[in-house]
Write a structure and sequence with these properties.
The chain is mainly alpha-helical and about 140 residues long. It is built from six helices and no strands. Helix 2 packs across helix 3, helix 3 (about 40-50) crosses helix 4 and helix 4 (about 55-75) runs antiparallel to helix 5. The longest helix is centred in the first third of the chain and has 27 residues, at about 15-40. It is globular, with a radius of gyration of 17 Å.
Amino acid sequence: MSLEAAQSPVQSPWQTAAILVGRLIFAAVFLMAVTFKFTDMGGTAGYIAAAGFPFPLFLAWCAALLEVILVLCFLTGAFFTPAALVAAVYVVFLGFAFHGPSHWAGNQAEFGFFVDHFTFLAGLLFAAVHGPGRVLALKLGSAS
């Protein structure tokens, strides 16, 4: 494949579908997370407090607000690249804060949870580079 073909603005139907499905998966993951927060904000605050963070209820609400914004960005494609980059930083932070090395001795499954954050990070970075696609995507905050 030539460089010109790789940079072609034309997407095949499967590429368009894959991008849309990827956006829906990102949105669904953050929608589930924010739903759990809204369902039991006190429980989320307790989890944050158990990790040693101050102001756990405030931080739980901040996380919920961030996740709502990410869901909207992934669903609409608006501000997609900045949202994917913010989500990437957020996911790495969550991995270290709640599943990092200090948690592995007590529960080896925590290592798996930790590693999962990096597979999610890889997808978010790939999405940030390639953008929201050309279909069903608002171009707000986009360089193109």
